[in-house]
Amino acid sequence: MKGFIEEFKAFAMKGNVIDLAVAVIIGTAFGKIVSSLVADIVTPLIGLLMGGVDFSGLTYTVGAAVITYGVFIQSIIDFIIVAFAIFLAVKGISKAQKAMEKKQEAAEAAAPKEPSEEVKLLREIRDNLRR
Question: Who is most buried in 4, 6, 49, 74, counting CB within 10 A?
Fold first, then answer.
């Protein structure tokens, strides 16, 4: 039993698990922001452009069944906006990382490099032969 608990601790404290937990928490918060953007800003604007249509209220009744296709349309719009926002965030992060890598490469290229061990040895031999 003690080995099982130690193994669980090791698993739970791995970097990947912690990174995943942080990603889920940030993703949830980001999802709330995007959902608010869609529900409070984008959907009313689209509804206004379409003559005041409120997507969430769109339904179709077949017998006793009520098909709320407006909610489905809203979910599709939410998905597209979330996917686009994530795309923009990933693209921005990727661009920033590339810029940092270029900056780091430029700094490394500008910094004087220490000669290899072979060059040091050859210089030492050269200096000894001069004596």
Answer: 74
